[in-house]
Amino acid sequence: MKIQIINGPNLNLLGMREPDIYGNQPFLEYFETLQKIFPEVELYYFQSNVEGEIINQLHESGFDYTGIILNAGGYTHTSVAIRDAIKSIKIPVMEVHISNVYAREEFRHQSLISAVCAGVISGFGLNSYRLAVEAIKMANKTP
Description:
Elements: E1 2-7, H1 19-22, H2 27-37, E2 42-47, H3 51-61, E3 67-71, H4 80-88, E4 93-97, E5 119-122, H5 127-139
Parallel strand pairs: 1-2, 1-3, 3-4, 4-5
């Protein structure tokens, strides 16, 4: 089982950026924790502040992996192109947010990608990623 985690703009600043919202832990540190929790899963990580690079990564991962966990950051609310990329690939994409976007500014309440994702996890801090790995694992269990 291979899962690609893709983080969008400004998420390279986790641990430094608005710790009252996003916490104090850098994502790469948390990624190591995820790898320890799920040794049976091949986890890969990609981060970019550039919309086109995120789309390219979705295309590259979208046919060979078991699932994608996507925190599109601010592109969640603006990117028709990322929505179209998700819609064009064959594997499930879980939309993830660290904060509860519905408890924040109103513009964050609208997601252009939710409707084409397999699910949405929001508001559990970095543990939102762990929950997304669990969801992809459960979706891929054979009965």
